[in-house]
Amino acid sequence: MERILAAFIAELRAIGLPVSLSENVDAAAALRAIPLTGRAQVKSALAATLVKNHDHYGAFELAFEVFFGSRQLARLADGTPDGSGEDEAAGFGTGTGTVLRQLTEDELNDLLFRAVAGRDGMLLRAVATEAVDRWAGIDPGRVVAGTFYLYRTLTRLDLEALRQRLREAPEADGLSDLGRRLAEEDQDARVDAARAEVEAEIRRRLIADRDAQAVAATLRRPLPEDVEFLNASRAQLSEIRQTVRPLARKMAARMAHKRRHLRRASLDFRRTVRKSLASGGVPVDLAFRKPRPAKPEIMLVADISGSVSTFAGFTMQLAYAIKSEFSRVRSFVFVDGVEEVTDILETAADITSVTHRLNLGTSAVRLDGHSDYGRALEAFWDRWGGQVRSRTSVMILGDGRNNYHASRAWVLTAIRQRARHLYWLNPEPAEAWDTGDSIMREYAPGCDLVVECRNLRQLRAFVEQLD
Q1: pLDDT tens digits, residue range 98-134?
Q2: Which residues, other chains included, contact 79 with Cβ-Cβ below 8 Å and sequence gap of 6+?
Q3: Domains of the chain
């Protein structure tokens, strides 16, 4: 158990979960205090000791399924050494004997329907095992996550047809609308359980072939804060959106605390002299002015062309969520023109509605709809440059890919001379800068700081250093 727990925690750390040494000790103590036969108890104990953020639970759950699957846990409870057991020794043809192997494809699907409709977990496991034996075509030794094996198996099982058969079952007749809806949700849950059983069986075969650590590495998914903005899937973007709001609250509180406690108060000379009269003119007690640090003003200038718009959207969303810590947040978007969208962002429900309103017509796109940083920055300077003040921090959000147009980098120098700070946040990896049409080497000298900002973790680190 100690070995598999150590491997499990090593995988969590590789994913990005912060697991300390004391939490490792707590997890080991928790497992010694509970029976290993209760899989739900083991999962709850490990989650309670190792997971501190709700957004990390999905990654924990997947790793738990790999290292503490029902059969692996049963072997641990029986005292069987890790990595051994009859299932592994039998190889990939373990199956279910000759009975299910004699069934046709249609008969096996009928048996699956009976297992799901009757909530027969043992029969469902047997059908899943036989289906994987027949159709997965697992190739021993291949370093894969098993997605294709799952696809091949589920295609032959046809879970959508199974779902439809459950819908047409006579038990649904005579139900009210609410009852029918609840019944359909229960049917969907049972179909999902069938899919999960097939997935677990494929995972068990892969673990028997390559061990849990190797399989976990192929299944590894990044945490929401580590997903790259430019490469995120729709599901991952949804997870990031759910992470932004609580993250913004924490950051706003941290920034407020920093502003209150890290600013040094200046000496109040008059009060110090007055207080010194009580000690014969010796300034024993110094008096300081109460610190009243001014809140900075933020101007966000964001490229909204192509996939970069996703990054700009999250940055604007985060800035508006913490705007209580700034005197004002103003937002501008550009492609080859530039337009202020402060009012749109303040009244829109979310970034999707902002995009919809911008698509109705915007001066951010003037010519061919391809990024022209030089033209957009010059237009920003001509129209709003006079409103940049000594308390204004200007942030440029974009990849610096200028489609081989003139850079007009002098604009950044002019902005920095007027502004408190000028930052550039680039969502591309630093090694991709200055390749192709990227001209970051021309823009970087005009900025106080150029930051690689590919995910929420890097964006949070940047925002926390603002002053």
Answers
A1: 578 888 888 888 888 988 888 888 888 888 888 888 8
A2: none
A3: 2-221 (no CATH), 234-262+294-464 (3.40.50), 264-293 (no CATH)
